Structures are given as C-alpha cells and as structure tokens.
Amino acid sequence: MPEFQKLALLVSDSDRAREAAEGIFENLTEWVPIEDAEAVVVIGGDGFMLQSLHAMLDEGRILPAYGVNLGTVGFLMNKNRQPEKLLSRIARSKAHKIAPLSMQAVTETGETHRFCAINEVSLLRETRQTAKLEVMVDDKVRIKELVCDGVLLATPAGSTAYNLSADGPILPLDSQLLALTPISAFRPRRWKGAILPDRSRVAIKVMEAEKRPVSAVADQREIRHVVEVKLEIARENELTLLFDPGHALDERIVSEQFVF
Q: I need a labelling partner for 119 at 20 to 30 A (CA). Which of 102, 146, 157, 217 fits?
C-alpha cells in the first residue's frame, strides 16, 4: 500500500481541469513543490500525463504518478469519482511499473537525438512519397525494403493507442513484448507486423532519404529528416503509475480486447 507524506499537484491547462483543481483538489492537503515530493497527482487527460512523465524523465527524477481523468479517454488515468476522497484512494492504490522505449535518431545532417517514448515510436513519411525502410532486429535484417506510410514500435502500455488504430496487437502489460506494426504497408503487402521480446533491439534505416523524407515521433516529440532510428527498452527509466484497485492498466488492456 503506497504511503506518501509529500504530494505534488500537476494540473492541465484545460478549463475543466483548472476548475476542478481550484474547486476541490487544491484544498485537500498541503501540496508541496515537485522537487520536494514523494509522488505526484496529475489532473487532466492522457496527453497531460504523458507530458508530466516525460518532464520527470527529462529531469532525471522519476516519481510515482496518480492520474485523475479530466480529459477524454483517460487510459493512463483513474476515474474522477469522489474527489473529496482522493487521498484515501491514493493510499489504497496499486503500483504498476512500465518501462519506456529509448529512441536514438540520426538526421540527414548527422545530428543525433535521444528521447524516450512511453507509448510508441513512429516513423512516418513526410511527403506524398511513400517511405522505403530497412527493418533490422538484433542486428539481423528482417525486411530489406518495407514500402509504407510508416512503421511503429509500441510498448504494452501504448499498444492500445496508435498501435491499435494501425491494426497492431494489444499486449498485456506484463507480457514483456513489443509490437512492431506497419502503417499502410504497400510492400510486402501481406506483412502485418511482428511481436517481439522486449529485450529486442530494433533498427530502422531510411532508404532514399532525400527523395522520401521520414520523421520519427517519440510519443509527442518529432524529429524530421531522419536516416536511422535505433530502439530498445530503457529499463533504467522505469516509471510507476498508481491505479485504483480494479481499474488498473492491465485490466484496461484486457477489457479493450472485448470492446466492439
């Protein structure tokens, strides 16, 4: 059972989140600055939760995060019910660990960019020209030429997001798997993607990069004109999400497979 004496409050800029914070949440306890906190309460939607988690990754100080959904889907959040009992709900919450992807992207100019992705890393064509990509897994070429709109590598936590929209598989949270999913593949036409062990190292090279420019997107961060992207799980950056009993992320991932 989590026991946190010092909590920080992070609130989205949306009107709905601000009104809720000012009306109820800000008066529940004596909130502390995030640099002094043992855990954070995130008020908003999935996008703001991802933004908050990335900020912690950038700062190198990762704290457990309990989300209250005042957005739309709220897949990474808890329901906004009985807000006056927020502190007792946090005390009863269950901790779930998720490991993000590490992306190393090299651009046409030779610059190297490194970002983490909690949901997925996507490679996307930038123009009307289809992308041509070489796909390697653990230093072995698996697809010499993938002609497509793009390709993505998703974590279990992100498998129900963009990956699912691209007809990728839903992965149980504790599966220790990654989903490699093509986006509108033209050739090889029958390739629907692959499920990989999460210890895999994936490298994607962009062919004809000047004629067929490609961008790489790690969750919300985009790098344009990439020529090569290397991906692997960043176990040293493991994150902790707190969920109400019965509403945890692993249960949501199972439930999502029965939605019609």
A: 146
Helices (H) then strands (E): counts for the chain: 5, 17
Q: Count CB atoms within 10 A of the CB of residue 240.
A: 16
Residue-wise pLDDT tens digits, 174-197: 889 999 999 999 999 889 999 999
Tokens standing for residue 187: 């050739």
Residues designated as active site: 46
The answer to whether residue 250 scores a pLDDT higher than 80 is: no
Query: Are the beta carbons of 40 and 61 closer than 8 angstroms?
Result: no
What proportions of the chain, in percent to the nearest 5, are helix, strand and coil? 20, 40, 40
Asked whether 143 and 191 are in contact (CB, 8 A), the reply is yes
DSSP annotation of 149: S
Residue 189: burial class (beta carbons within 10 Å; 0-12, 13-18, 19+):
exposed
Q: Can you give the pTM of this predicted structure?
A: 0.88
Q: How many CB atoms lie within 10 A of CB 157?
A: 23
Q: How far apart are CA 139 and CA 254, in angstroms?
A: 33
DSSP-derived letter for residue 187 is B
Q: Which two tokens stand for residue 167?
A: 């007809």
DSSP string of 40-102? EEEEE-HHHHHHHHHHHHHHT----EEEEE-SSS-TTSB----GGGHHHHHHH-EEEEE-PEE
CA 125 from centre of chain: 21
Determine the residue type at 35: E
Position 2: which residue type?
P
